[in-house]
Design a protein that fits this description.
The complex is a heterodimer of chains A (410) and B (228). With 410 residues, chain A is an alpha+beta fold. Chain A folds into two domains: 194 residues, no CATH class; 186 residues, no CATH class. Helix content of chain A is 52%, strand content 23%. In chain A, the strands form three sheets. In chain A, strands 3-4-9-6-8-7 form a six-stranded mixed barrel. A two-stranded antiparallel sheet of chain A has the order 2-10. The two termini of chain A are 25 Å apart. Chain B is 37% helix and 30% strand. By secondary structure, chain B is of the alpha/beta class. Chain B has a single domain, classed as Rossmann fold (3-Layer(aba) Sandwich). Classes of the chains: A alpha+beta (410), B alpha/beta (228). The complex binds adenosine-5'-triphosphate and magnesium ion. The site of magnesium ion has 3 residues of chain B, from α1.
């Protein structure tokens, strides 16, 4: 009966219910779109960022992240490989070698960050192949007898005035303490990169890097790529557990630990959207409070009769809250449908910032919305709970109706 | 002992700022089972106030009410609410019914609160509707009924749970004289055939004529009490 009455009361004053519903729907869509942009947009950026090179989880020597160094290396053993391939969430695992050095082309010189990669695997896991603007990508087969190929980042190439085919001299230090120097051919040059950290990168085949740096079979990093970046923490935890018995010198970290500046500044940026939440709670709250208060004023006499007949005050509270609850559910359904429509153009076309924004070293020119679950369940929670909580105020007022007064005034 | 309500030295004083209104002044009387009593008196003589105090809807300044053998003075709000539900039927001047409930549901409401099973509720509703001459309107909603029909539904709702007494505050005031007269006939029949106890407050001379007992109030005090 209570539900029946609540339900019928909604359709009794259609215009008023419509108005209440409208404020809830507007609030819902606003929140949903904001969420789709921030959560979904950041989700895209994270995907882009991790896909670019970081990966989702990385394995290093346990001291490497804090103090990167040639000697803080690891051996990619069969045991490690087995543990990684056994984990179904991991799609790609790429080994890498890093070191610093000096690069020369003719009289031009600059500091370089040497990155050794497995060309084919790296190309499958990351977007590196798409970034080659001029020339060719590294060939997967390394011939120790031939002059080795390198890929230069855009920034590096312009400092060195490098062209495809240029001869490049690289000087570094080998792990055995010797001076490492060798001659390379520039096989390709990257397009301008959005990651400012990558400006000094010079890529070569991992076997060449190992030989050049006298690392033998040692590497510095295994970057792991998952299907869903949201699984990063889970996967890292599993790996940590499984690797603990095999290698005590290893550390497993997520992209959030590896790229802390990026992660933190993004989180900070995201927290700004809570202001939006507050505004929406206000819109919904005031809309509901206003109309429900009016409704209660009009129904005073009815409540008086219900109380005189022996209804308990809590029944009236229940009736009013249920009425708002039903209305908020209906509004949420409509709001969700409208949000589906509203997010669509944001997903396809996105929003271009008037000025490119830099977040943790990544320059972002536009942001795209996405259909992320939080963009739906969050508005549902916010709208329904706000409506229900706010309706308690008039509901308590109604429950305290004095039947005598209610009956005398009409 | 066959008394339904016993009033002893009932007083009600309203204070609005400096002004005191002695709305009910030392009223004592007893209503017996099966009576058909009218309380008459000019506007402001305290009829409504008195009725409200009898049902415990309103507290008295002093005096006591014994309803169905129990004093209502010391009851908690929720006990009083249940007690009222089980022992008193209400008919108000107008807009008695809950607009979002059908005729059937309006009449069922108290039985629902009392926890009477559905089957029995349905039976009682159709029986009572035929008694008040409204068979067939179960599914209709109050706004689709005439004022007279609405008051009949109100009567049906009031008596369906077999209360000890029906308190009716000017039940005919908003009806034309024909509908008022019909409604009164119907209530009189219920009184004679079923022995339902009625207590009216009224300006309506028709009710005063047909009442078996007429109590007249003046300035909150009993001016006369005549049993015919
Ligand atoms: N809540 C209140 N506050 C102050 N005075 C009140 C209140 N309720 C009633 N009164 C006063 O008490 C007196 C009795 O009122 P009551 O409504 O009982 O009279 P009544 O006989 O029912 O009149 P009517 O025939 O117009 O319905 C009136 O003078 C009225 O103004
Ligand atoms: Mg009155």
């Amino acid at each position: 009966m209570l539900w029946k009455m609540a339900f019928r009361n909604i359709f009794r004053q259609k215009r008023r219910s419509l108005f209440t519903a409208l404020s809830m729907i507007i609030g819902f869509v606003m929140l949903s779109v904001t969420m789709a942009l921030s959560e979904g947009g950041y989700g895209n950026i994270i995907k882009m960022f991790t896909k670019d090179h970081t990966g989702h989880v990385q394995i290093h020597h346990k001291e490497y992240l804090e103090r990167p160094g040639l000697y803080r290396s690891l051996v990619y053993t069969k045991k490690i490989e087995k543990i990684i391939t056994e984990n179904r969430e991991i799609k790609h695992a790429v080994p890498r070698v890093f070191s610093g050095g000096l690069a020369f082309i003719d009289e031009k010189t600059t500091g370089a960050r040497i990155v050794g990669i497995q060309p084919a695997q790296e190309a499958k896991a990351t977007t590196i192949l798409n970034k080659v603007e001029k020339g060719e990508y590294l060939s997967d087969h390394w011939n120790p007898d031939k002059k080795a190929e390198v890929l230069l980042s855009h920034g590096m190439a312009s400092i060195l005035k490098a062209k495809v085919g240029s001869e490049l001299v690289l000087i570094s230090q080998g792990a055995d303490g010797s001076i490492a120097n060798d001659l390379f051919t520039v096989t390709g040059i990257f397009a301008k990169d959005f990651d400012t950290m990558d400006r000094m990168n010079i890529y070569m085949h991992i076997n060449k890097a190992q030989e050049f740096l006298v690392l033998n079979n040692k590497i510095h990093e295994i970057a792991l790529f998952l299907d869903d970046y949201l699984d990063s923490t889970k996967v890292a935890k599993q790996l940590k557990k499984n690797l603990a018995g095999v290698e005590s010198t290893l550390a497993v970290d997520t992209w959030m630990d590896v790229e802390q500046t990026f992660y933190r500044s993004m989180e900070a940026d995201k927290s700004g959207s809570w202001i939006m939440n507050l505004i929406i709670i206000l819109i919904v709250g005031i809309g509901v409070l206003n109309t429900v208060l009016m409704v209660i004023l009009e129904r005073t006499r009815e409540y008086g009769i219900l109380l005189a007949l022996g209804s308990r005050p809590y029944m009236l509270i229940g009736m009013i809250v249920v009425e708002t609850f039903i209305l908020s559910i209906i509004s949420s359904i409509i709001g969700a449908l409208l949000s589906l429509l509203a997010i669509w153009p944001l997903k396809v076309y996105g929003i271009t910032y008037p000025e490119p924004v830099s977040i943790g070293g990544i320059t972002i020119e536009s942001i795209n919305g996405a259909y992320v679950p939080i963009a739906f369940w969050m508005p549902i929670v916010v709208v329904i709970s706000t409506a229900v909580i706010v309706s308690l105020i008039p509901a308590f007022k109604a429950a305290h109706t004095d039947p005598v007064k209610a009956m005398r005034t009409f | 002992m066959n008394s339904v309500i016993e009033l002893q030295k009932m007083n009600k004083i309203y204070k609005t700022g400096e002004i005191e209104v002695h709305a009910v002044n030392d009223v004592s009387f007893t209503i017996e089972r099966g009576e058909f009593t009218a309380i008459a008196g000019p506007s402001g003589s305290g009829k409504t106030t008195l009725l409200n105090m009898m049902s415990g809807l309103e507290s008295s300044t002093s005096g006591s009410v014994i309803l169905a053998g129990q004093s209502i003075a010391k009851m908690s709000a929720s006990d009083l609410s249940d007690f009222r539900r089980d022992h008193i039927g209400f008919i108000f001047q107008s807009y008695n019914l809950i607009p979002v409930l059908s005729v059937q549901e309006n009449i069922e409401y108290i039985m629902l609160l009392q926890g009477i099973p559905k089957e029995e509720r349905r039976q009682r509703v159709s029986k009572i509707l035929s008694e008040v001459g409204l068979s067939g309107v179960e599914k209709r909603f109050p706004p689709q009924l005439s004022g007279g029909q609405q008051q009949r539904v109100a009567v049906a709702r009031a008596i369906v749970s077999h209360p000890d007494i029906i308190l009716a505050d000017e039940p005919t005031a908003n009806l034309d004289s024909k509908s008022g007269s019909d409604l009164l006939d119907m209530m009189k029949e219920l009184n004679t055939n079923r022995g339902v106890t009625f207590l009216f407050s009224t300006h309506d001379s028709m009710i005063m004529e047909r009442a078996t007992r007429l109590i007249t109030l003046h300035d909150g005090a009993v001016a006369s009490d005549v049993t015919k």
